[in-house]
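Good morning,

Both structures are done.
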Amino acid sequence: AALLLSCGLGVLYAIVVRQAFEEDNAVLTDKVRAIRAQLGNPEGLHALADQLKTSPTGEQTVYWIRVFDAAGHSLAESPGMDELLARNAFSPGSPAGTATLHPKNVHENGKLLSLVTATQIVAGQPVTIQIAQDRSSDEEFSKKFGALLAIVLTMGILAAAVIAISVTRRGLRPLRQMTDSLRDIGPAQMHQRLGLSRWPPELQPMAAAFDATLDRLEDFFT
């Protein structure tokens, strides 16, 4: 029971957690695609820079964005991104037009961040786009979901143990009764027999064999 429950709940945990991270990967890919499309417009870079500077305060930051040119000059950047993540924390960028991204997960300042790097041509010059996505909520969900499955696993094992003990004791009760009946048989009680009707089908062959043995012993003593 423990092995089956562990395998089943382990597979469930892997599927649910993987699905949650895959959904975030899809959202992150859409974010990169949207920024690339925005930078493709003539005034897209300035609009993105203004958008990042005027980000709403009081809201939880989910994305940090940095755009810089081939010389390393910052063109647009989310406030506080330099303090959070250095440029070398990101993997090499995906070429423009690449649809598949491979996020890199790191822990920084108590947050789980998924990092991607992409490149885009802006005004004939290549620029690098670095995006960090906060996935701390996914990590917290994974921990809580894992703790819940551990509780379910423990309760399932305990329930299986209780059921197994109860069923085993109930199943062995006829064998104990047969043992008591055999213990009472002696030279003065050779006429007693176990019979077949009072025993479950699994013990009837044993009862028949004992009765046959008693028949032979009774004949011998007679």
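Second structure follows.
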Amino acid sequence: MKRLKLFFLTVMALSLGFISCDKEEDTKLINELYFQIQNAEFVSDGFPAASSSVDAPDISSIYGNSNVLAGGSNPISVSTTDAVKSILVGVQGQKGYYKIAASNYKSTNYLYIIYLIINQDLQFENFTIVIAVLDNAGLVSTHETINVSRVEAGTGKLQVSCSWDKANDVDLHLVEPGGEEIYYGNSYSENGGDLDVDSNAGCSIDNINNENITYSETDIVESGDYIVRVDLYSSCYVTANTNYVVTVRYNGNLITPKSGTNPYYGSFTSEQADYGGEGDGYTVMTFNIGSSKNAVEKTELVDGFKFIYPNNDEKRPKNISPNK
């Protein structure tokens, strides 16, 4: 009888443990589970319901990548028919959302580009991004959605990622301190740096629209200066501008660059396509990895992002605006 009682107590304890874990997961908000947005107010509440009024604002179109990488990014374009006060971004069925002031943008045609910085520990294989706009009268538009899938990619000790918003061939380049360049023509360096995602290569469109270079925990991340470049290899008959985002993470955190910004937001015109190879592309940032003997890693929280200073760099990260 005692054994039976003990068995039931054990089962109950295990069940409570599982329930506790589930509840803990349920209490996390989207900024902890999915993504962050710079220069946005985070609201730890449910996503606002659409207003029933005929005067509610309208979203004429939205566009964003349907594929993301853990530790990467996703540029999302939102077009409205009239001026709005804020753009709201959340995840369907999840608590918490971002409110981005429309005044942050120098938009004259009611086009807003929102940059999602995807968490490096993203666990979900699929989720749905929800977008709405809010006008000055407090009315909320109908909700628009983008279904997103997570593409397998390495994160590791050092991760350099680029995402863009058109079905064309953008190339990511990383030059190591020793001079070896990782790009589509040299996808694996002697140190172990690996271009493990190479999207839309040669206009063979896969619609992943992401590239990723990663160093595992056992690879060599040598000390010295690194150069990150981005190149529009081919527009693949796309005539519209291509918006892109580059992020660099070291030991899981955004690294403070020596030059440029991190994340870096940029755009290409179709005329800038150059079929470039080694040495080509636009330098978006340089960063330094200090000697492991001398480096003192320091982190700082800015706009909800953890930045790392791996080489005693006391320069505070810039509060970057998503405007160009």
